[in-house]
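Lab notebook, bench 4. The sequencing result for the construct came back, and we need a structural model before the next group meeting so we can plan mutations. Quick request posted to the team channel:

Model the 3D structure of this chain.
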Amino acid sequence: MNRSNLGLLLGCCAGGLLALGCREPQPEPAPPPTHKIAFQTNRDGNSEIYVMNPDGSGLTNLTRHDSLDYHPSGSLDGTKIAFISGRDGNQEIYAMDADGANPTRITHHETADIDPSFSPDGSRIVFDADREGNVEIYVMDAGGAEVRRLTDHPGVDSHPFWSPDGSKIAFYSNRDDLASDSMEIYVMDADGANPTRLTEHAADDRYPSWSPDAAKITFSSDRDGNAEIYMMNADGTGLTRLTRHAGDDLAPAWSPDGSMIAFVSRLPAGNMDVFVVHADGSGLTNLTNHQASDSNPRWVPRME
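Done. Here's the predicted structure in token form:
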């Protein structure tokens, strides 16, 4: 090709003339999200476990059962989701594959076993139960063996959540004011030793969740009139309010990269929807917009 012809071809491409077969470069397709959000919803008539993409798309029902299935919690390797179900008569902890296959009953007790949370390595599950007269925190192997009680206190110890390095468990309790229904946030060693109170307020502080680097803990509190999402350092200092809403904001959960926090908010109509917000409180986005109640969001790795 001589120089004049080459110049003509380059000029045509620069001008975008399709007659010469030139095309504008197309952007590369966005990679699929590495994580999904699992949550519970009653949009099918009873509570089921769903997953969705972080933008709210790709809704999938994982459980499809006539019983109540709720409170999902995924293993960090993305292979399992633990949840609570009453399908065998009372509330027990189950685990299923990340796609909903092979649901398996993990606990077998006449009382309710609830609020499961996988250890970071996936080998153990911490949960709470009223097996011995009041709500205490227990730990077991991921298959349900070797159940061991971690707390032993007349107060309510509930909603345990493992730290990312596996060394600590956060939970809420009224152990320092047994006459109160208001809870405080505590942490303890993974073996139940050294329980330490992080919040000290007359309000109700619940649902602790660790940041991926273990530096922060989010929780919900009604200390400013209604339940909002707050964030503090892992030692209880540096309290920051993240949400400001007339309805209750509850059950926060960090994204694996630490950039987003999913939570549930009660809307004026009385139903609940799943929202996400940036860790600095900006970028509030409603992910589910349904007349049913959607709640208890948890991030789970995508296994595809």
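The two ends are 48 Å apart (CA to CA).
Will bring this to the meeting.
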